[in-house]
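Retro notes - structure team

What went well: the batch runner handled both jobs without manual restarts.
What didn't: labels got mixed up in the shared folder, which is why I'm recording both outputs here explicitly, each with its sequence directly above its tokens.

Job 1
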Amino acid sequence: MTSTVNIKSFWAKVLAATFIFPVAYLLVLSLAESWLFPELFPVSFTAERWSTLFSTNSELFNSLLLSLVVAVMVAFISTLSGFYTSKQLAYHRKRKLWMRLSYFPFVLSPVIYAAVLYYYFIELNLAGNIGGVILGHILIAYPYSVILFSGFWGNRTQRIEQLVQTLGGNRWQTYKHVFLPLAQGLLLICFFQTFLISWFEYGLTTIIGVGKVQTLTLKVFQYINEANFYNAALASSLLILPPIILLYFNKKYLFQKRW
């Protein structure tokens, strides 16, 4: 019995190290002043890149703020609109047809999907600006939220809604006191997921933004193409920070039911 526990503990540590190593490597590389082959470790370290990150003229910091604004707006709009739309589709007579259409954005790659939509974005003067990028991200995140919420509107939820209406509750009261509390955990999951969809989106941002909307993801690839690995590591460290934070809250709140 003890040996079995030790084996499980060993493999758990190996798995944890496997996930931690890439993150640790990026942090070390972002702090390295010089790290050339065949050196096993950096010759020296510097915090200059991190200190200049928060300067007033830092393009990387501006990209970080821009990505946060875009991702939060996309997640907020997609979560609320997807929650409401999924309810309308749940009781629609052509529900199966509309649900199949919800999967369409995920059949194509984001680059092809953006190329198909690019003409309409030009006609609407949305190409090359933040509004167009946000709308483009919503066109991917919104169907995802509809699909995610589709399982919430089952027979139990419908019976509760009918009970509230029988007791004299209106639509606003039903949403405020019944649907939103019941779906609280699912709403948070949807917000986290749609945030990450927007946060990591590259292909659609590149085409719709035509290179003018420099999100953090675009900065990472820009530094890699320039062979600027130290700045690429810094940008990548910033890129993986929100997923780590969301993973922490996801574990603490959704699984342990506490904040």
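Job 2
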Amino acid sequence: MLPAASQIFSAHLMAALTELEVEQAFLSPGSRSQSLAIAAQQLHDVDRLTLRVRIDERSMGFTALGAARATGMPVAIITTSGTAVANLLPAVLEAHHSGVPLILLTADRPKELRGVGANQTTNQVGIFGEAVRLCEDIAAPVGDVDLDFVRALAEKAVSVAMGDFTHRAGPVHLNICFKEPLSSLTPDAADVYTGAEFPDEEPQVPSFAILNGEVNTVVVAGAEAGMLALEAAEAFGWPVFAEPSSRCRYGANAIIAYAAVLAEDQELTNKIQRVVVYGKPTLSREVQKLIAREDVELIVVRSELTGLFNPYGNAKEIVDDLTVNGEVSSEWLARWRVASHNWISAQNYNTGLDRRKVIELVYQASQLDDAIVLGASRMIREADIWAPSKPIQVFANRGLSGIDGTIATATGIALSSEGAFTRVVLGDLTLIHDASSMIEDPEETINLQLIMVNDSGGSIFEKLEVFEVVAQGTFDRIFRAGQKIDYWSLANAYGFVYFTPANEQELLDALATPGRVLIEIKL
């Protein structure tokens, strides 16, 4: 049997991707994508690629997202045609808004079968809209496959996904049509080397802001702000208001209770004259009010991950980096540190298990090589209030701030963490929404803990205007939406060890348990 053109194409494409530092791939089984799946498995068998199989494309998309978040490297996703592709959309949107590199390899029927009623066929080209950095519609390979084209396609896909030319990493979409025969055993992708390499990137001249050091300045570090925010704050003596997923919520410049001080100490807040923003801040209304103030000079530092942040259109400068002329008063930082310390000291301390205690104990239990994943909605905001200063990796899907895919994202992070603990702090609705992602991978053991704060539904809505507008019964039905779930049975069904700690020590014991663990905190 002669090698199928589809298999020749797929073997060379997948081999080229591995030569371009694509180390992980995820696939969901399907017929039209079989040549891609075979090639990926062949590369997996010789340790050129780590291939993982997931039966649900929606969950798979978020798992790949988590793996790419954890490593910073592009991850390939393989699907068959039809609704399989559509199920990737939530993860693709999050990847787009968070600057996460994904390479979507979606198999398709031949182009002539579109729009004529052919089975499992829709127009997949452009299905992700502006959420992908690149969309290529590739005709079905037949006859002699143009191997130079395949190599160049892989080079282009990886370079664009990594943001080499756009300076904004993100997902790319290769929609590949296949005609029968859809696969063959040869060529073996493990024997293929294409010589693929990264194209030369034209150097860019970064833009700088030169700032007056005498102006009272604070750094706002939103999601994915990274070390640049902390380095600037420490270099220039500025307070840094760091969200938990900023990766820089530690050190002497980190103001833990920044949101409370902004809300309650108007004298100090009104003295802010300049805000420098890194990343994408989304958690605090007080920060949004500060950024929108007309009397505050707003400087935004570009992010290759989260993209442009200028929601009120009032940024004075949008730059790549900055420097300062003149001395910065040490008293300015000291005042913010004292104000934060005083606010925290004044809060009543509950000896029972409440949201504050859960956040504090999860951070206490986590070592520096562990990861914390915060679900959207209530618990990430609790972490923004109570999370201590600690240099630990904290992840959250803040691109679009949805609760979808939280467990799957954490699973991808755990799979990339080489035995460290991945602890997910989430609410009951966030867990239920992605419960199908709790399914066990029989080939790999991970230390994944789901710390679920069960407050019977969407308690976050209690902090919004609607709570004062509608009757309690109406609120409970259409906003809180509490569910009746037996979480012991749920954990047992998916092979999780289940704990319901009643006190601090029991929670610490549960947090020390390796493997896959569900911890229910009943409020």
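One thing worth noting from job 2: The mean pLDDT is 94.
We'll revisit the folder naming next retro.
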